[in-house]
Write a structure and sequence with these properties.
about 850 residues, 4 helices, DUF5916, eight-stranded antiparallel sheet
């Protein structure tokens, strides 16, 4: 700040508190100035502080704000909807993000190349930013005026100050920015960055005698190229050739006893950057419904979908994931106001090696696949009207085996419309989507009978299983009207998913054949009062039907959040569910009435600004007739002994007893038998994290999770009348002389008619599953955009069929058994910036 350029001219200093006391003067003074030349925009911010020794300068990893910070946000398109944020903490850690949809969506995975230095002074601290115009997107015909916001956060007060006041009750965000003028002489710059990389590594694991693929050792080497090209001044092409994501943290362990696929968060940098642009959600809110989308990037590079059946003494070496040959992503906004997001990716054919009695052959387990995703949206009426659309296509080259399991092609499309009213205080949205999949009769039969559809349900009058079908079409969408401004907000919404809707080739769809009606209302208490710093209270109500018009379920909840003036917080809620007609519980069988119930959730957190932070989260559920009870308990300890070290430990215990847990389906005398059992399930995990942040560009991160799960099945029964009025009349438990267990082969034998002859049998379903996952990653960004990773990952697992939960035995089985699977690798990338 001592350079001559910063000393000439005035500094802007008109800041206002946003939190905790909206509209009041800040406790500390802040000033800023903006300069530019042909290639860069420079931002100087002075954060004055009457107690400089109280400035919190914690070190953290990029995009994880901790401590005092300042930042600037540019609406460089000046479309009043899109903004680019550049934030820096007092310790020099960067946080950058893009904001879309008037600030409703924020994407902190955007990591532009920019430069910043911070300094601690006798009067406070300062930040000087140098931002290349290549990293900002703007139209050459509208560069004279940008939207602008500047922010400061004072950690010890939990105070946020804005240069341009924006009320916390305001609808939206970006459209309320101030303006930055005087930029008429700048010219947009096209970006061209090439980043080649190399990965070398070694894997070690337990050698298996007789298995030619399990030698105990593997070497790994890979090279590829990432790039970023400015196609125009505001459209950027990102591409990757032969990418490697070995530095990405593993997914947490889980035991999924439902019929539905688990949703996993995307962690790969290429796919998470700009993910908001290519999103087309069928649902709303922040629960399971919000995950259903026309694009789910985890489909690209997925685990191979085909698993060959093996004979005794036959061995297989199957890839864990599908290799991505290359991917390209075009994103940006045209001068005419079209937001564009296009992804093209090709995944390689993967083959498994199979060995039997000294001979080997291969079998394709995932075909060569092309994925195409395109999303556009147009701003009209100064951003108050939005229209958009999306199209995706998945195309596969299938051999004679895979063609019976996978779709040859899959296409989805959608249209969306948004209209704001009354200065954006009210909103109306409408979206609609369709899908069409094609393939062989065998592949379409697999689709129709999958857990997303269950067309074979015998009591369904509006759908039927067609074994000759070679294509399937469906539709879905939602309509919403709500109030987004003010302290009192509400949303009235409806959502539908037809029985034939199919998105899972490149999207995510949990279930179909549902029509939802939802109402939500919430009130925000933004001003501190009494012991309260801020709070909110919410009410929810919903009804669900299927496409035959059958009523399925209704429910509602009350929940709230309060932050106290000592910065502790509490949240909680209570949820009520009516009896539900569950069309999925018998997994292709008839719908069944499941007793309703209630659950209570709650959590408390201490002051997160302190070195030691404690929190506790709990959830308890009770269903009528003791048909299901469950509880979960999750305490957490987070400790920061100094500005560079952060440690957290989070144990989690989940317990469930369910009277009707699905086991299997059998046929007896021409009738289907749906076997259920009482389940006693326990899951215990310990999640541990250690972050050592030596500098803003050099970090060490460790994550480890021991995981122990057990399930004990007993009191086996069959479903007799799934919709009987009385719960006990819906099933019939096996009598002692109908059920025989053979411990030597762990099989149950059923003599249903008690004639002394086994009618059907099933394998004992008890389980214990223990797993340990860990990742140690050293990351050094030795120059902006160029990085070195050192990675050590380890996994252990153990399973048996006892079903009894024992922590001591679990630890012994897991850590005193076979050699773990270790992966050591080094990844080196170097950014070549060409302008």
């Amino acid at each position: 700040m001592s350079e001559a350029d910063w000393k000439s001219g005035p500094w802007e200093d008109s800041f206002t508190q946003r939190e905790p006391y909206e509209g009041k003067a800040p406790r500390q003074k802040t000033t800023f100035k903006i300069l530019y030349d042909d290639n860069f925009i420079y931002v100087g911010i002075k954060a004055f502080d009457s107690a400089p020794d109280s400035i919190v300068r914690r070190m953290s990893r990029r995009d994880n704000l901790d401590g005092d910070y300042v930042g600037i946000s540019f609406d460089s398109y000046h479309d009043r909807r899109t903004a680019f944020n550049f934030i820096v903490t007092a310790s020099g850690v960067k946080d950058d993000a893009t904001m879309t949809n008037d600030g409703d969506n924020e994407d902190d995975t955007w990591d532009p190349i920019w430069y910043v230095k911070t300094s601690l002074t006798s009067w406070g601290w300062s930040a000087e930013m140098k931002i290349p115009f290549t990293q900002l997107r703007f139209n050459k015909n509208s560069s004279s005026v940008w939207g602008l916001e500047v922010v400061r956060y004072i950690y010890r007060y939990a105070e946020t100050d804005f240069w341009q006041p924006i009320a916390r009750s305001a609808p939206g965000f970006v459209h309320l920015y101030g303006e930055l003028g005087g930029l008429g002489n700048i010219k947009p710059k096209k970006q061209l960055d090439l980043t080649p990389y190399m990965v070398a590594g070694v894997e070690s694991y337990q050698k298996e005698e007789g298995n030619p693929f399990s030698t105990g050792h593997k070497n790994r080497f890979k090279a590829g190229l990432d790039g970023k090209i400015g196609v125009t001044n505001n459209l950027t092409l990102d591409f990757t050739i032969n990418p490697d994501f070995g530095q990405v943290e593993a997914d947490p362990s889980e035991v999924n006893l439902t019929a539905f696929e688990t949703f996993f968060r995307e962690k790969r940098p290429f796919f998470i950057e700009g993910k908001n642009i290519t999103s087309f959600s069928l649902g709303f809110g922040d629960g399971d419904l919000s995950q259903e989308n026309l694009f789910y990037s985890r489909r690209i590079g997925r685990r191979p979908q085909y698993e060959p059946d093996l004979r005794d003494n036959e061995y297989i070496d199957s890839p864990k994931n599908t290799s991505i040959i290359g991917a390209a992503k075009l994103t940006g906004k045209t001068e005419s106001g079209w937001s564009v997001g296009v992804i093209e990716s090709v995944a390689a054919e993967e083959k498994a090696k199979i060995a039997y009695e000294g001979e080997q052959h291969s079998q394709a387990v995932e075909p060569l696949t092309n994925y195409f995703v395109s999303r556009v949206q147009k701003d009209l009426n100064k951003g108050n009207t939005l229209i958009g659309g999306m199209v995706t296509n998945t195309s596969r080259q299938l051999d004679d085996v895979l063609k019976n399991y996978l779709h040859r092609s899959a296409t989805t499309g959608g249209f969306d419309f948004t209209q704001y009213f009354d200065n954006k205080n009210y909103i109306f949205t409408l979206n609609a989507a369709f899908s069409k999949v094609d393939g062989t009769k065998e592949a379409l039969l697999e689709t129709q009978t999958s857990s997303r559809h269950y067309f074979q349900r015998p009591d369904a009058t509006h759908i039927r299983l067609d074994s000759t079908r070679t294509s399937l079409s469906g539709f879905g969408g939602n309509m919403q009207f709500g109030k987004t401004g003010g302290n009192l907000k509400f949303l009235l919404a409806t959502m539908a998913k037809s029985p034939g809707l199919e998105l899972n080739d490149v999207g995510y769809l949990r279930s179909t054949d549902q029509i939802f009606q939802v109402f939500w209302m919430g009130y925000r208490f933004n001003e501190p009062k009494g012991i309260m710093r801020k709070a909110n209270l919410n009410l929810n109500q919903w009804n669900v039907w299927d496409f035959s018009g059958q009523y399925l379920n209704s429910g509602g909840n009350v929940n709230g959040y309060i932050e106290f003036k000592n910065y502790w917080s509490f949240h909680g809620g209570v949820n009520f569910d009516s009896d539900e007609v569950d069309n999925y519980i018998l997994r292709g069988g008839p719908g069944m009435i499941v007793p309703g119930g209630m659950n209570i959730w709650y959590g408390i957190e201490t002051d997160e600004r302190k070195k030691l932070k404690l929190s506790y989260f709990g959830n308890n559920r009770w269903n009528k007739f003791n048909s299901r009870t469950s509880s979960s308990y999750s305490p957490e300890i987070e400790y920061r002994p100094n500005n560079t070290l952060n440690f957290s430990f989070e144990p989690s215990l989940y317990k469930q007893e369910r009277e009707l847990q699905y086991v299997d389906e059998y046929s007896f005398n021409g009738h289907n038998r749906y076997l259920m059992a009482h389940l006693d399930q326990k899951v215990l995990s310990f999640s541990m994290r250690v972050n050592i942040n030596l500098t803003p560009d050099l970090t060490i991160q460790y994550w480890g999770q021991p995981f122990f799960a057990s399930g004990k099945y007993n009191d086996f029964k069959t479903i007799t009348d799934p919709k009987a009025d009385q719960f006990s009349d819906r099933y019939s438990a096996f009598k002692p002389d109908q059920l025989t267990y053979n411990s030597s082969d762990e099989m149950y034998y059923i003599d249903e008619n008690q004639d002394g002859t086994t009618d059907y049998s099933f394998e004992q379903p008890n389980f214990n599953f223990n797993e340990f996952l860990s990742n140690l990653v050293v990351r050094w960004e030795y120059t902006p955009g160029s990085t070195v990773y050192l990675v050590w990952s380890q996994s252990r697992d153990y399973s048996d069929s006892l079903g009894d939960f024992s922590l001591n035995q679990g630890f012994d089985d897991l850590f005193n058994g076979d050699q773990p699977y270790n992966v050591f690798l080094i990844k080196f990338s170097y950014r070549i910036g060409l302008h």
